[in-house]
Write a sequence for this structure.
């Protein structure tokens, strides 16, 4: 194929020629324009030395508009030669092979030694060949990609920074992919995990399925992450992971494509924070124990007149139990009259003033009582008052003592006056200037001078000339504050004679008080003075007692403020996440608590009694009711077991105090087992004989024991000898008060019992409380008495009903009595069996299957049949205890009734069984 030959020029007309020239010019102009305006840079280099033949505007701009046409690259762009680009051009020229570069760095330096511009270029060096195939030049074309390249670098750096962060943060982080079965997450794989996560889990678990490294992980984790993956709602929670034995704060959010079921998880180990929180709680509890142990009303009333805190003493003072008082309004609790009496003082306290006043506050039984009430405002950090603490003491006894004292003082004063006037002893007061200030009438009687005459002259005027010198010396001694107790001199009488006087002189407040006697009467008068002084000392001591008690309450308030302030700060810090500061506040609070405890101890020592409220107590029930509290206090790493002896005697004690004591013992046990262990609380009946009584310092008799055993550090024998001392503690400052065991000891002794410690280092400790048995309306005696009655009555049929649930016994008894039967009740298998083994007439046994006392109903019935082979039995049971009852195969004469039942059914079954002879 050949293009038609262009018409020969000579054949063109002139017009045609001109048009062709115009066309060519236009074409070349547009080409030049294209070349000039091309967005890529273009240059044409000719010859082996790469001389610039042509550059476009973009190229010129790239090299900072240097004049390069006609120069070689090496001359025009020296920095290109330095950076190796000329060598590259040489290679292209020599080999004829093009060279392409992407993102090549080229530092442009328009002025040698001047500033450098960092550029990145994509370019091609394309060799140009002539008609013979020989390279004659190089075509350079390219783009400036500096901006793109820098952006990429920044991105890479950013990514590196995030990676560093991700690798170095303390928070565990991982991405997991969940596996679902029927909409339920059943497993997950750790797609990616940072080092902190790996540290917390203790193994490199990246890429693994959780079922492989933590097979026992609780369902909670799967369910929570499953929910996040399905709903896309983030989760934030704190949870205890059994498998790791740690607490975690966890945040989880869905990431990536919802269908991929991926969840990003942040983990922080907060075990330490939880521990601090627990300790703060324990501190508060300890404070509560102390406040409750005080024989003083302590409360806090808010500015709205509502009780916020009351201690246990309120139980004694009010007919409402203390826990019913918190949240109530003062006026509502005390009634309008009592409120009106207190209102002005409350207003003053809320105005920031500490007020003290006394009130008649009759006891609940109407007996007279005087109360000293203190309101101490509590200041907020901003300086306002948000309520006040109340301290109320029973000062009846003190008042009586004071009144008695006043009476005595008055009597003494009168007596002294009488002595002064009527005494045959010479009594006087003199000043240090050497004059008498006052003299009693005995002086006139003894010396003959009137009082006025003696006061008018210096006393030396009356002194025998030979005695002046020693008298001056003695007066000098008095002026220096030295008493003169045996000094003697002679005084002149009005009639000129002299009397030997023995001076008993004391300086006080710039005066000299003297009792003077003639030698014969000296001894008697000295005695009177000594007695007077003793009485004075005694009265001062009584006053000190009163002041001290008041002062203690004030100190106590300050300490409470320290403690509650610290607790508040801890709360604030915790909400700010500043856990590191907590220990400091903890130490402050516990230090104050210790000092408060010390004060308490002194208060108790003063009052020398702790109000005990003993009543018959079922100790097993008390222990059972406390189990949950104890378990929460000692934490999950300690296994708690309570073993209550069936048939435990009741004890006559203050139940609140026993709770305190047990809690203290369990806290001690926990402290002795920092790495976990086991606490056992056990009850038992004990007979203490004469020898045992001597050994345990107890009267012989019947006691029950409550023992708390731990598997902790134990105590060496010399330590055991010290632990009951108040304030003895081996715990670091701020952790122990040293009051726990002394409280336990005080309680046991005041209750007529004893405490004993059995401990072995490294093995553990048992602390046993022995408490006196209460001989009251115990179940056992009840049964015995009823047996006696039944024996006498000897009429009608008799049914024995055994059930530990009193309401069931009552119900059945009522039905039986309606039917005209006699009922005997027993609450457990031991008591029941006793009746069955006696001679009492029993026509039918009605019994529960699950029974306390070591035997179930079936076993008891079988044991009863050994003696009464024909005994008829009706089991009443809450659930089908088939195995116990022999899988439905009951022996003849035995029947089952399932609870709940209609009373008529019960009645007809009983009639039926008894009638069936
Ligand atoms: P605190 O517990 O405040 O130290 P306590 O009076 O309760 O005061 O106990 C006094 C000391 O007796 C403790 O510091 C501890 O040394 C020791 N102790 C008490 N109970 C136990 C126990 N179960 N195991 C080991 N040591 C104990
Ligand atoms: Mg303790």
């Amino acid at each position: 194929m050949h293009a038609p030959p262009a018409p020969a020029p000579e054949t063109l007309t002139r017009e045609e020629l001109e048009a062709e020239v115009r066309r060519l010019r236009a074409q070349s102009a547009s080409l030049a324009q294209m070349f000039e305006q091309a967005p890529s840079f273009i240059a044409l280099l000719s010859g082996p030395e790469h001389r610039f033949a042509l550059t476009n505007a973009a190229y010129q701009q790239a090299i900072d508009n240097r004049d390069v046409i006609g120069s070689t690259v090496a001359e025009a762009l020296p920095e290109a030669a330095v950076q190796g680009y000329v060598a590259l051009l040489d290679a292209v020229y020599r080999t004829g092979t093009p060279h392409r570069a992407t993102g090549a760095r080229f530092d442009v330096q328009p002025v040698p030694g001047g500033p450098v511009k960092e550029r990145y270029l994509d370019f091609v060096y394309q060799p140009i060949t002539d008609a013979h195939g020989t390279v004659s030049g190089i075509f350079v074309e390219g783009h400036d990609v500096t901006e793109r390249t820098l952006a990429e670098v920044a991105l890479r750096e950013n990514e590196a920074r995030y990676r560093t962060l991700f690798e170095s943060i303390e928070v565990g982080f991982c991405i997991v992919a969940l596996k679902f079965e029927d909409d339920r997450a059943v497993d997950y794989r750790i797609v990616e995990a940072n080092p902190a996560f790996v540290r917390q889990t203790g193994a490199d678990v990246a890429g693994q399925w959780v079922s492989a490294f933590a097979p026992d992980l609780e369902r909670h984790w799967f369910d929570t992450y499953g929910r996040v993956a399905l709903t896309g709602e983030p989760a934030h929670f704190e949870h205890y992971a059994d498998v790791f034995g740690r607490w975690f704060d966890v945040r989880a959010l869905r990431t990536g494509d919802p269908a991929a079921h991926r969840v990003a998880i942040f983990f922080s180990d907060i075990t330490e924070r939880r521990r601090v929180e627990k300790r703060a709680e324990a501190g508060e509890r300890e404070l509560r124990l102390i406040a409750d142990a005080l024989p003083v009303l302590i409360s806090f009333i808010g500015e709205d007149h509502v009780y916020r805190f009351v201690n246990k003493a309120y139980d004694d003072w009010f007919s409402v139990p203390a826990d019913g008082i918190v949240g109530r309004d003062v006026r509502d609790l005390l009634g309008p009259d009592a409120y009106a009496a207190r209102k002005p003082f409350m207003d003053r306290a809320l105005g920031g003033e500490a007020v003290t006043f006394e009130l008649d506050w009759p006891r609940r039984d109407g007996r007279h009582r005087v109360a000293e009430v203190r309101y101490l405002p509590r200041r907020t950090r901003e300086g306002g008052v948000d309520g006040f603490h109340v301290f109320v003491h029973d000062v009846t006894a003190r008042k009586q003592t004071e009144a008695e004292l006043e009476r005595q003082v008055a009597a003494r004063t009168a007596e002294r006056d009488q002595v002064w006037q009527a005494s045959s002893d010479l009594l006087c007061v003199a000043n240090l200037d050497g004059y008498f200030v006052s003299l009693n009438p005995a002086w006139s009687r003894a010396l003959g001078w009137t009082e006025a005459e003696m006061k008018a002259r210096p006393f030396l005027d009356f002194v025998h000339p030979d005695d002046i010198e020693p008298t001056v010396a003695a007066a000098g001694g008095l002026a220096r504050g030295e008493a003169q107790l045996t000094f003697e001199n002679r005084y002149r009488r009005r009639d000129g004679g002299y009397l030997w006087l023995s001076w008993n002189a004391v300086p006080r407040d710039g005066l000299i008080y003297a009792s003077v006697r003639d030698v014969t009467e000296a001894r008697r008068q000295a005695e009177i003075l000594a007695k007077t002084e003793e009485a004075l000392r005694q009265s001062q001591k009584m006053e000190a007692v009163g002041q001290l008690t008041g002062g203690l309450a004030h100190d106590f308030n300050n300490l409470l403020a320290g403690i509650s302030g610290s607790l508040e700060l801890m709360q604030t810090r915790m909400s700010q996440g500043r856990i590191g500061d907590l220990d400091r506040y903890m130490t402050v609070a516990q230090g104050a608590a210790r000092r408060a405890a010390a004060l308490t101890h002194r208060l108790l020592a003063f009052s020398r009694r702790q109000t005990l409220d003993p009543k018959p107590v079922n100790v097993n029930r008390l222990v059972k009711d406390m189990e949950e509290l104890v378990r929460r206090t000692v934490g999950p790493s300690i296994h708690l077991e309570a073993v209550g002896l069936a048939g435990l005697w009741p004890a006559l004690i203050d139940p609140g105090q026993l709770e305190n004591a047990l809690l203290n013992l369990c806290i001690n046990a926990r402290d002795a087992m920092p790495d976990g262990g086991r606490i056992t609380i056990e009850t038992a009946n004990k007979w203490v004989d004469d020898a045992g009584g001597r050994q345990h310092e107890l009267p012989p008799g019947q006691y029950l024991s409550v023992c708390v055993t731990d598997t902790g550090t134990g105590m060496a024998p010399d330590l055991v000898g010290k632990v009951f001392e108040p304030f003895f503690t081996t715990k670091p400052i701020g952790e122990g008060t040293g009051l726990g065991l002394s409280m336990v000891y005080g309680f046991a002794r005041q209750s007529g019992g004893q405490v004993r410690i059995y401990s072995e280092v490294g093995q553990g400790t048992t602390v046993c409380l022995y408490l006196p048995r209460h001989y009251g309306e115990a179940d056992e005696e009840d049964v015995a008495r009823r047996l006696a009655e039944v024996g006498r009555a000897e009429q009608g049929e008799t049914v024995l009903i055994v059930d530990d649930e009193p309401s069931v016994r009552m119900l059945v008894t009522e039905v039986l009595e309606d039917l005209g039967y006699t009922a005997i009740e027993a609450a457990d298998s031991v008591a029941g069996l006793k009746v069955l083994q006696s001679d009492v007439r029993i026509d039918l046994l009605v019994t529960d299957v699950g029974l306390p006392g070591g035997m179930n109903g079936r076993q008891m019935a079988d044991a009863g049949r050994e003696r009464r082979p024909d005994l008829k039995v009706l089991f009443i049971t809450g659930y089908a205890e088939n195995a116990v009852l022999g899988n439905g195969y009951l022996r003849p004469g035995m029947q089952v009734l399932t609870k709940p039942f209609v009373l008529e059914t019960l009645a007809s079954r009983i009639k039926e069984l008894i009638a069936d002879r």
Q: What stands out?
A: Confidence is low (pLDDT under 50) at residues 536-551, 605-611, 778-794. Residues 664, 667-668, 740 surround magnesium ion (ligand 2) (CB under 6 Å). The two ends are 135 Å apart (CA to CA).
